């Protein structure tokens, strides 16, 4: 297929955490909020005057200093973020809002605070206690935390309007981006998709790390371009896969999978669109913050939520999108030492094979995969087994 | 007569096999890999082709499949297939009764369960770590100041096994040096090393779901001391292949080439 007109532009936005659009928004006087997890509702940081940037550490090399503070037994994402922070890569931020999504992320941000990695005088950190279950009690806690640690903090430090009306406006802007991403992503359901998993991942990631309003034009143009994009007659892929697992913000990961012969048709991971780019539906009768919190609590597919019905719901969701996007197999990936996904990867991968009969490959991976020969070999062997399965009509799996 | 090639561009050795239309192996070559995998594959192909009077260049092969870590660098290859699939197919061609493989190559160790038609049923492999691989043995033999073959023979002489705790190649080497310094018998240390690797193979075999009819492939399959240790930890007798086990990847690639090119 011919390259998408704005693909190079999108790729460039991911080269550094502080990208051109971030600089542009900062120059307009907006405050930049560093975010590290889905559990702090992104939409709350979309209020007028502020914008969120989900933290990444592109081109990570050695993580020696991060490892010194975090130890080698914690996940590389958190070590890479701390290393980048110490290197001075997050000086553009005005605050960081961190949940106790996992204790590793919490330690990471606490270390940033202890080490005073940001030189701005009014820089502040907030730590949210977020629910591990999804029920009414948990919602009550979640709403309270988001009220005091996010909305009140933004109002107090930056004078941000946090009224229901302002929140409704933020939801509308957030939903607009979600609709665009979903419309683009829907083309992955086609028999011969007119967008690759890599392209979609790049576009989706941009919406996490840039002021969303500054991306709208390019997203709309890209959607229009895709509508009439000419596909290669013969798809260059031999199998369709759904990728499920811990956070992937390394652009090389999806590229590596696709270079090994699999088209990534569904992205069920942090920084992905399922469910990360689901629209928020509001009614007119209830407090807006409660509705937002309910959306993020109920829609979350994070394995840190441990009530049985959520565990079962996650498996069903993985299966549902595998069917919806016509995936031949599922790749469960886990960043090494990510505790929630270590457990989930093991149990869910067995369930997918045994209960749903879907071929599964499980891999653990570093934060930056680079050109990993081992992962490439595994994925290619998996693709070959999927190909044979399709020919034979039988069931094979790793 | 049509001829089909398989070139296994491994990290330590490059292997090439040519088979004819009937699947009979008519040429095979094993060469130490150079730093440039393209040149290694070219050398192996040239030497294999020189063994077949009807062939004069790689372009005359009806179909050529590349495999191994340098699989996408094999010159003139029509396709590349992962070494996991190729080892399974190669072993199936050599002995269809085999149901599982422990492949110990230069930089990885894999457990592969093989289906009745030679395709992969399941697999498991090591991560970014040289523990239990050919490189590990090379480092250990170097510490013993002997060739790999002599190291293997030495381990077979041991009456007892001295456990080696470190799996990391670097730390295992220093542990071995310490044990030698303490005056421990060299054969028992060597047996301990073989045993440590055998346990790692056990894990890969079990992860892949291997139960019986297991064989060894890759360069380390020629290490009798390791084979004996694996048989001991797995409580089974490994199947001896009628063809050089180091050639299984290349043979499987050639067989895939035959299936695709016929």
Describe what this molecule looks like in 3D.
The complex is a heterodimer of chains A (398) and B (262). With 398 residues, chain A is of the alpha/beta class. Chain A has a domain at 167-392: 3-Layer(aba) Sandwich (Rossmann fold). Helices cover 48% and strands 12% of the residues of chain A. In chain A, the strands form 2 sheets. Chain A has a 4-stranded parallel beta sheet with strand order 2-1-3-4, with helices on both faces. A 4-stranded parallel beta sheet of chain A has the order 6-5-7-8. In chain A, helix 1 crosses helix 8 (197-209) and helix 4 (76-87) packs parallel to helix 5. Chain A is globular. Chain B contains 8 helices and 9 strands. In chain B, a hairpin with a 4-residue loop joins strand 2 and strand 3. In chain B, helix 2 packs across helix 8 (248-261) and helix 3 runs parallel beside helix 5. Chain B is globular, with a radius of gyration of 19 Å. The chains are: A alpha/beta (398), B alpha/beta (262). Chains A and B meet through helix 14 of A and helix 2 and strand 8 of B.
Task: Offer a quick outline of the entry.
The complex is a heterodimer of chains A (398) and B (262). Chain A is of the alpha/beta class and 398 residues long.
Query: What form of chain A results from the Cα inertia axes?
Result: globular
Rounded to the nearest angstrom, the distance between the terminal CA atoms of chain B is: 11 Å
Spatial strand arrangement across the major sheet of chain B: 3-2-1-4-5
**CATH class annotation of the largest domain in chain B:** Alpha Beta
* Major β-sheet annotation of chain A: 4 strands, parallel
Major β-sheet annotation of chain B? 5 strands, mixed
Rg of chain B over CA atoms, rounded to whole Å, is 19 Å
Structure classification of chain B: alpha/beta
Low-confidence stretches of chain B: none
